Amino acid sequence: MSAEWSKPTKYIVGVGLFLFSLYILYLSQDTLTLLIVAALIAFLLTPLVNFFHLRLKIPRGLAVLLSYLLLILFILLSPLILLPPIIDGFQIIASIDYQILIDQTLNWLTNTLVSLQTTGIHIFGIPINLSGLVNPALETLQSSDTTTLTLPSLQAIIEPLRSAATITYGLATSVAGTVVSGALSVVFTLFFAIYMSLDSYKFRPWFLRGIPEAYRPEIAHLLERLRRIWQAYFRGQLILMITIGIITWIGNTALGLPGAFALAFIAGVMELIPNLGPFLAAVPAVIVALIQGSTYLDINNFYFALMVIGFYWLVQVTENNLIVPRVLGEAVELPPLVVMVGVFVGASVGGILGALLAAPVIASAREVLSYLYAKLWGQEPFPHKTIEALSQPNLSLWDQLKIILARLQLMLNRRPKLPQPEKKQAETSEN
Predict the structure, then answer these.
(1) For 126-147, what is the HEC assignment?
(2) pLDDT at residue 208 greater than cutoff 80
(3) Of 41, 53, 256, 354, which residue is the least packed, with the fewest Cβ within 10 Å?
(4) What is the H or E stretch that residue 123 is in?
(5) CB 151 within 8 A of CB 98
C-alpha cells in the first residue's frame, strides 16, 4: 500500500493544480471565446438532439447531424425571410431629413417661448413673469439662421470613404483577412459544438466521478440547478424576443409608425440585453416618430412621439410585470441594478458575449456561492427538499405538458359537490 500524502503536501498539490489551470486558461484565452460559443450552441441544441435520439429512436450521431443541418438551414433561410421587410424599414429610417427635424425642433421651441411670453405661468394662482428669461432666448432663436445648421448628406460622407478605400490596398487586405479569419472561426466553432453535442451525455458522469461519494448527491443537485438556470434563461429570452417583437410590431402598425417591422425587429433583438435593451430599442422609434410622424393619425409629430414613448413604456411595464415572471420564473430572478452592473462589467470584460451572458453567469455564481456559504457554516445547502428527491432527473418538456393537460382534464371533469339545504341536514340529524 502506497504512503498517504500529508496535509501540507495535499495543499501544495491542490494550489499548484489550481494555478496550473489558471495558466492554461490564460494561454488559451484566444480560443476560449470559441469554446464558450460552441458550448452555448451545443447546450441550446440539446433538446432537439434528445428529441431525435430519445423520441424518434435515431442514433445519436445521426441526431446530432440532423440538428446541426437544421441549424445551418435556419441560418441560411432567415435572411431571405427577414431581410426584405427589414431593408424597407431601414430605408425609411435612412431617408430621414435631419434639416426638417432641426427646423421642427426650433419652431416648437419658438412657439413654446412665445406662449410663455404672452401668458406666463401660474403657480398656486400666483402669476410669474418669465420675460427676463424668455426674451433673450426668443431673440436668439428668431435671429438664428437654421440653414447654417444643415448636416452633410449621406452621399457627401460616403464619397471620401469610398475613394479612400479604393486606393488603400492595405485596408482591402485587412478586410479580406478579417473575413477569412471570421469564416474559419465559424467553422471551428461548429466543429467544437458538434463534438460537444456528441459527448455531452458523458460530461456529467465524468465530472461526478471526481467528486467524493458522500458529496455526489449535493453536487449533482447543484449541477441540476445550474442547468435549470441556463435552460430557463435561454428559453425565456427566445420567448421574450418573439413576444416583444410581435407586440411591438402590432402596436407600431396600429399607431401608423413608419418602418414598423424593422423597429419591432430591433425591439426583439434588444431583449438580449437585460433591462437596458427596451430603452435602447425605443430611441430609433422616437426619432422616426419625431421626423416622419404617423402615416394616418392627424397629430403633431411631437405629440405622436410622446404616444410612441408611452407605448414603449407600456410594453416595458407589461413585460416586467406579466411576461417575465411567467417566462423566466425564479430561475434568474435578480435585482435590475445587479443585472445592469453585470451587463456593463461583462461588456468591459468579454465584449458583446459578456454583456449577453451577464445575467445567467451572475445567477449561477449566486447558486454556487450560496452552496459554499452553507457548507462553510455547517448549514443545509438545500433545506426545502431532500437531496435525493431534487437530484432525480427532470421530466422532459413533452412529459410535463402531458401531465399538465391531464390535470386540466381532471379538473374539468370533476363535478363540484352541491351543498345540502340546512333543513334537510336538520331532518337527517333528528332521524
Answers:
(1) EEECCHHHHHHHHHHHHHCCHH
(2) yes
(3) 256
(4) strand 121-123
(5) yes
Helix (H, G, I), strand (E, B) or coil at 377: coil
Amino acid of residue 306: L
Give me the pLDDT at residue 64, please.
92
Q: How far apart are CA 266 and CA 281, in angstroms?
A: 6
Angstrom distance (rounded) from CA 364 to CA 223: 10
User: What would the mean pLDDT of 345-357 be, rounded to a whole number?
Assistant: 83
Burial label for 243, CB within 10 Å (0-12, 13-18, 19+), is middle
Q: Are 358 and 345 in contact (CB under 8 A)?
A: yes
Q: Cα–Cα distance between 391 and 385 in angstroms, integer?
A: 10
Packed helices 301-318 and 216-255: angle between N→C axes, nearest 10 degrees: 150
Give the pLDDT mean for 369-389: 73
Distance, CA of 245 to CA of 247 (rounded, Å): 6
Residue with cell 425564479: 330
- Domain extents in the chain: 101-122+129-151, 213-412
Task: State the chain's mean pLDDT as an integer.
Answer: 77
Rounded to two decimals, what is the model's pTM? 0.64
Task: Provide the 10 A C-beta neighbour count for residue 419.
Answer: 7
Rounded Cα distance, 27 and 18, in Å: 14
